[in-house]
């Protein structure tokens, strides 16, 4: 059984450095930036716990997760980002176009941030994020982020304010 584990990890690395070389090279460059941060191996990938301003990103066999967040968030995000590494294995050179760029726009675009905050749309409803959760959790058997955790806190705060206003108006 242990041999099968090593064969899987070997194939994971070989495929990431051939079929997924574009994103693995980008991940290697980002690794150089965060070379002094804590690193672990996670199901064949290299997980870096960075101290930057972003939450997480996956580039080839490299996972970058914000190590300054709480342990539950870090664990769930690592599972999610691992799911993106599987998408990289499947899509290879298409990954950046099919997953990477749409995910980056969904995460950082003011339009989509506003949509999530105003309408309470979960970050994990968008196809790259949704399938990263499914793939990551099905392989690792660990819990990914919940749909609810992807809804911005601002949305709940606004809903609470609206309820408060309605209560005051009805009194």
Produce a short descriptive summary:
The chain is α+β, with helices and mostly antiparallel strands and 171 residues long.
Task: Itemize the secondary structure elements and their pairings.
Elements lengths: L1 H17 L2 H13 L4 E5 L2 E6 L5 E4 L2 E5 L4 H21 L3 H14 L1 H10 L7 H14 L12 H18 L1
Parallel strand pairs: 2-4
Antiparallel strand pairs: 1-2, 3-4
What distinguishing features does this structure have?
171 residues; alpha+beta; 4-stranded mixed sheet; 7 helices; 4 strands
Structure description:
- By secondary structure, the chain is of the alpha+beta class.
- The chain has a four-stranded mixed sheet.
- A hairpin with a 2-residue loop joins strand 1 and strand 2.
- Helix 3 runs antiparallel to helix 4.
- The relative contact order is 0.11.
């Amino acid at each position: 059984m242990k041999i099968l584990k090593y064969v899987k990890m070997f194939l994971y690395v070989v495929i990431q450095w051939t079929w997924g070389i574009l994103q693995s090279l980008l991940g290697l460059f980002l690794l150089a930036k965060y070379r002094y941060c804590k690193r672990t191996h996670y199901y064949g990938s290299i997980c870096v716990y960075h101290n930057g301003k972003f939450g997480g990103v996956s580039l080839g066999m490299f996972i970058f997760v914000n190590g300054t967040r709480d342990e539950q968030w870090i664990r769930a995000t690592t599972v999610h980002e691992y799911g993106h590494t599987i998408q990289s294995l499947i899509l290879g050179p298409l990954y950046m176009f099919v997953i990477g760029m749409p995910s980056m726009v969904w995460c950082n675009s003011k339009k989509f941030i506003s949509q999530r905050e105003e309408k309470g749309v979960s970050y994990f409803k968008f196809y790259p994020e949704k399938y990263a959760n499914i793939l990551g959790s099905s392989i690792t058997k660990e819990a990914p982020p919940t749909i609810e955790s992807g809804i911005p806190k601002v949305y709940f705060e606004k809903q609470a304010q609206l309820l408060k206003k309605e209560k005051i108006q009805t009194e």
